[in-house]
């Protein structure tokens, strides 16, 4: 682009990085990202998020962590709620490797900075349930109520599935009653979760 006398802006770089990261060519995405800095184009947290997410999705967990550290060292670009959610989601994919603890540490940081949302809670709870850690998942539910967030059916379904997988079917049924009491209507997925839990 520069050779043709054109000066790409932040949006052009963001679009290019996003497309290249999605295609899996993360080496080139990093080259474009570094060129952005060299050319004096303002860096942007969205570009960081796309590259970190790309690394996680391709299984390059160390690289994702290195990119996260780069973001934290930035003086003019700061992690957003999306950045934290990307990291938590990526770390929760590694729950069998014990990385859920790293996700929990990030989650705690987010709560201290008051930048958690329901997506954050959904992700971390699902990670704990997949790890078989029902106790920690229950603590996250308590934080949701503490933070005065209104859980929707997705979070209820994650909890129902998690409780069922931990062998707590009675608690899962009680949880459904709680959802109904809060005006949260079950979906076909909700009923499938409970039917499977009772039958199997």
TrEMBL record:
InterPro entries: PPR/CCM1_RNA-binding (IPR051222), PPR_rpt (IPR002885), TPR-like_helical_dom_sf (IPR011990). This is Pentatricopeptide repeat-containing protein. Keywords: Repeat. Pfam families: PPR_1, PPR_2, PPR_3. PPR repeats lie at residues 9-43, 44-79, 80-117.
